[in-house]
Write a structure and sequence with these properties.
Distance between the termini: 33 Å
Number of domains: 1
Helix content: under 10%
Shape: globular
Strand content: over 45%
Oligomer: single chain
Order of helices and strands: EEEEEEEE
Radius of gyration: 14 Å
CATH class: Mainly Beta
Strand order of the largest sheet: 1-2-8-3-6
Structural class: mainly beta
């Protein structure tokens, strides 16, 4: 048994990406952030849809085609469509932000 909230990482200067399960059409990962953000003017995209749950901490997410920046707190989730340009605008700088992301093929 494992915990989504407990880990043994001492160095969180880089985001931690851990795959929990991986199958042909999807994978689930835990992401641990500690003040990281996407560099300015860089937009992330992926071929799969991504359902993201924020479990601990807080984060701000920005989508290229929308003007508002979404503030996420524990319990919030968003669906990022395939090839939708987005970025992590900010994560909590003094505490861990823990995400659970489900990446899946959308038909």
């Amino acid at each position: 048994m494992k915990s989504l909230f407990e880990h043994s990482y001492n160095d969180l200067s880089d985001e931690i990406f851990e795959k929990i399960i991986e199958e042909k059409s999807f994978f689930v990962e835990r992401i641990i952030s500690f003040g990281q953000k996407t560099p300015e003017n860089l937009w992330l995209t992926q071929n799969r849809a991504e359902l993201v749950f924020l479990l601990k901490g807080w984060a701000k997410i920005q989508f290229k085609n929308k003007s508002e920046i979404l503030y996420m707190k524990p319990g919030n989730y968003i669906l990022i469509e395939p090839n939708e340009e987005h970025r992590v605008f900010e994560t909590a700088p003094y505490e861990e932000t823990i995400w659970l992301a489900i990446h899946f093929d959308k038909s």
